[in-house]
Design brief:
Helix content is 22%, strand content 25%. It is an alpha/beta fold and 306 residues long. It has one domain: 4-Layer Sandwich (Purple Acid Phosphatase, chain A, domain 2), CATH 3.60.21.10. The radius of gyration is 19 Å and the shape is globular.
């Protein structure tokens, strides 16, 4: 049985932050009047102050951590660069303590007021077909393979209260293209290849089999400006046969200055009857007024033949 939304809602997706967040960003989002905010991670290199500001946003929200959010913890080379005394401080854990249940990596948040659940994929993802940071993921999450990771994501899916699931990842799922311009395509040397997460794509496929409707899968990590060319931007939206819309929200940098004023980027997703009807990339001022708007997706209009 399909459960329909009580009313259309607007979801703001925040791409990779990379230290570009201040109180004015909270004000801008609140000024936009969105119903739900999803953060794809990479707030900074274990940036506790940024995460604290985001946690104070008054709008309903869900968060997943990116690879930069475990920059000094997940790998041996990162720990060597760590700027703090790890015997006395743990910035990664501080971030998690601030966020609490808002962090949906390998977890979920139910939003019954929207007839939606948000499920997080593997947190701290670097992307690609190689299983990285083995010790970190094993110690923290007891996963040692893509198969284990898929099972961990699916445990969260099975605990959701709503039939309609939005997936939130830092990196996107595998299977969406191998060209460097594709939504998760590898745009550095050697050029080309699918840099999506295999465990994420498997969890999405299993969720369909489990009877979940997935209107939206959103993520970041793979920046919209390509490294190998300036002649075009990365593909940011694709769809599949199940009418799921995949959105890469990593517009980096997400804050620019124009005529002496800062403008902030958000992706606005319109959801009606559990279907994505519109996606726009907007640049807004500190009050939430939209300065520019670029349409990224509109629901296809089905024509009738009589």
């Amino acid at each position: 049985m399909t459960i329909y939304q009580k009313k259309p809602i607007t979801i703001a997706v925040v791409g990779d932050v990379h230290e570009q967040w201040e109180e004015a960003d909270n004000s801008a989002l609140e000024g936009l009047g969105v119903d739900l905010v999803l953060f794809v991670g990479d707030f900074g290199n274990e940036s506790v102050p940024i995460v604290r500001k985001i946690s104070q946003l008054s709008v309903p929200k869900a968060v997943i951590m990116g690879n930069h959010d475990a920059w000094y913890t997940a790998s041996g080379w990162g720990r060597k660069k760590c700027p703090y005394d790890r015997s006395k401080e743990d910035w990664l854990q501080d971030q998690l303590d601030i966020l609490g249940d808002l962090h949906v990596g390998y977890s979920k948040l139910d939003f019954p007021q929207f007839n939606l659940s948000v499920v997080g994929s593997r947190p701290y993802s670097w992307g690609g077909p190689e299983w990285k940071n083995k010790g970190f993921l094993s110690d923290r999450y007891q996963v040692s393979s893509f198969k284990d990771s898929t099972e961990k994501i699916m445990s969260a899916v099975q605990e959701t209260s709503e039939q309609n699931v939005i997936f939130l990842g830092h990196n996107g799922p595998a299977g969406l293209g191998r060209d460097p311009e594709d939504i998760c395509g590898k745009d550095w040397q050697p050029i080309g290849g699918d840099h999506g997460d295999p465990d994420f794509s498997q969890a999405i496929a299993q969720s369909y089999d489990f009877g979940k409707k997935i209107p939206l899968v959103t993520f970041g990590h793979m920046h919209h400006r390509l490294r190998h060319t300036r002649s075009r931007l990365r593909t940011r939206v694709v769809t599949n046969a199940e009418q799921t819309v995949f959105l890469n929200a990593a517009c980096v940098p997400r804050v620019i200055e124009e005529n002496g004023h800062k403008l902030r980027n958000f992706s606005l997703v319109s959801l009606d009857n559990n279907t994505v009807t519109d996606i726009a990339s907007v640049w807004v001022d500190a009050q939430g007024a939209i300065a520019t708007k670029e349409s990224l997706y509109q629901e296809p209009v089905l024509s009738s033949i009589y």
